[in-house]
Structure formats: structure tokens, C-alpha cells
Write a structure and sequence with these properties.
By secondary structure, this protein is of the alpha+beta class. It is built from 7 helices and 11 strands. The strands form 3 sheets. The protein has a 5-stranded antiparallel sheet with strand order 5-4-3-10-11, with helices on both faces. Strands 6-7-8-9 form a 4-stranded antiparallel sheet. It starts with a helix and ends in a 9-residue tail after the last strand. The N terminus and C terminus are likely disordered.
Length: about 270
């Protein structure tokens, strides 16, 4: 083989390798930009759905958000932003990209996600909806403590079933628990209980979602590590937390998994 032929072969090989690397680089860059754009779309949709939330005052004068209205708003915002408004199949697919969401309130929270039931004919029906209200609970030395975002809490003596409503400093004398001896200890324990209840239930909802099993995922999805302070800043008021997964992004068609945190605090004002 002539040296010139070898040179031509080498140049051809190098050009092929460089072209392949260039394509992969463009695919990676495309995916990164698509991730950034989708992050912004979801962040904005979650925040807008909370900004437009309808609220009412219950019999105990607590502010209550309309949960169904918030989820409808979230879906509508995503349909528009992801160009799926006129396509019923795409709209359903976008809905299924949200296997779990949590709406936090003053003294508890609601899980949103999918579940499966059977109708009278034995066919499987898949529905999305909210759970019953759940609470920020911890247990210690025979006591079950239910926290809220205020100083008020509920104590239950596990053995006798006796229930007491009191403030954290009143709970110190009744229970003798170390967590109530100083405000700093109470604040730290309350924060940990709120975060762990919400995070564990949300992660469990994601991994129980039927669509994950249908996709053939033989693994558990774990949330990325998030500082306690970031969790607490998000969930210490009326807030919406959304897990978004399974949406294709970039030239490579990789699926997108993202935890979105967005919150809105709604305060009562005198004279309103």
C-alpha cells in the first residue's frame, strides 16, 4: 500500500471518529439544554398553579386550598408549555409523567398519585387522585406526637389511647420527653418529622406507581440528596411538591426525571 493511500485511509478514519464525536457532543449539548428548558417549564407551571390556587376558610378559620383546582391548573400549564393542548394522547402522557405530588398544609399533607382498582368485570382501572389527609408524626417512648407548623401539637399515649392537644412547652410536663425541654430541640425534632414524613411518603408513592412497573423498571427511584433546610423552607407553608419523570428530552431521547419544589404561602389579613 502506498503511503499516500495510508494517509487517505487515516484521514478518512479520523474524520469518521471526529464526526461521531461531534454528533455525540451535539446530542449531549442538546440534552443539557433540553433539561434546562424543561426545568424552567415545570418550575413555572408548578409556581403558576399555586399562584392561581383557589382557597376557602374552613369552620375552624384555617386556610384550605382547593386541591383539585391546583392539580387541574398544573396540568393545563404543562399542556400549553409542552405543546400538547390539542392532543389528547400527549395530554394523558404528560399527566402520567407526574406519579407523585404532595400538597402540604398547616397540620398535614395530601399525597397525589395513581392507583389501580378492578371494576365488576375484573378489568383494571387506573385512577389519579389525592389520599386522605396525612400528618407530621413521630413516636418516642410510648408517645405519638403530631406536629403542625405552629406551636400547637397533639399527643397520644399509645398504650391508653388518651389524646391531648397542647403547646410544645405544655407537652414537656405531661410527657417528660427530651424534645420538649427546649425550643431548639422542639424545632429540630418537628422539622425532622415534617421532612421525613413527606419525603418518605412521596418516594414510596413514586415507586408504587403502576406505570413504573409497566416501563419495566427493575429498580427503586430514589430522590437526590437535598439539604434539610431546603426541604423545610419549601414545606413550611401551603406548598406543592411535584415529582416529574419519563418525559423524553434531547436528541438521544433520554427520559427526564426531576423533583420540582415550589411553594406559595397564603396568609390571612385582617378585614378580609
Amino acid at each position: 500500500m502506498k503511503l499516500t493511500n495510508f494517509a487517505i485511509l487515516f484521514v478518512g478514519f479520523a474524520a469518521t471518529v471526529c464526526t461521531g464525536m461531534d454528533i455525540r457532543t451535539k446530542m449531549v449539548s442538546s440534552t443539557i439544554m433540553a433539561d434546562i428548558n424543561l426545568n424552567q417549564v415545570i418550575d413555572r407551571a408548578v409556581q403558576d398553579s399555586m399562584d392561581a390556587a383557589e382557597i376557602y376558610i374552613d369552620q375552624e378559620m384555617n386556610i384550605q386550598p382547593d386541591r383539585e383546582n391546583i392539580i387541574r391548573n398544573l396540568h393545563e400549564k404543562l399542556f400549553i408549555s409542552l405543546n400538547a393542548y390539542g392532543d389528547s394522547i400527549s395530554r394523558e402522557r404528560i399527566k402520567e409523567c407526574i406519579p407523585a405530588a404532595v400538597l402540604t398544609e398547616q397540620d398535614g399533607y395530601y399525597l397525589y398519585g395513581y392507583s389501580e382498582t378492578e371494576d365488576n368485570s375484573g378489568s383494571t382501572i387506573r385512577r389519579a387522585g389525592f389520599s386522605e389527609k396525612r400528618y407530621y408524626v413521630t413516636e418516642e417512648k410510648g408517645w405519638r406526637v403530631r406536629f403542625s407548623f405552629s406551636d400547637l401539637l397533639e399527643l397520644e399515649h399509645i398504650k391508653t389511647g388518651a389524646v391531648y392537644e397542647c403547646t410544645w412547652y405544655q407537652a414537656a410536663g405531661r410527657t417528660g420527653l427530651d424534645m420538649f425541654k427546649k425550643r431548639e430541640k422542639f424545632e429540630e425534632r418537628r422539622r425532622r418529622a415534617i421532612i421525613e414524613n413527606v419525603r418518605n411518603d412521596m418516594e414510596g408513592m413514586v415507586n408504587r406507581d403502576p406505570s413504573i412497573r409497566e416501563d419495566g423498571a427493575g429498580y427503586l427511584i430514589s430522590f437526590p440528596y437535598i439539604e434539610y433546610e431546603e426541604w423545610y423552607q419549601t414545606v413550611k407553608g401551603i406548598s406543592l411538591l411535584v415529582f416529574f419523570r419519563g418525559h423524553p428530552v434531547g436528541m438521544a431521547g433520554r427520559e427526564y426525571n426531576y423533583v420540582v419544589f415550589s411553594g406559595a404561602r397564603i396568609e390571612k389579613h385582617s378585614g378580609e
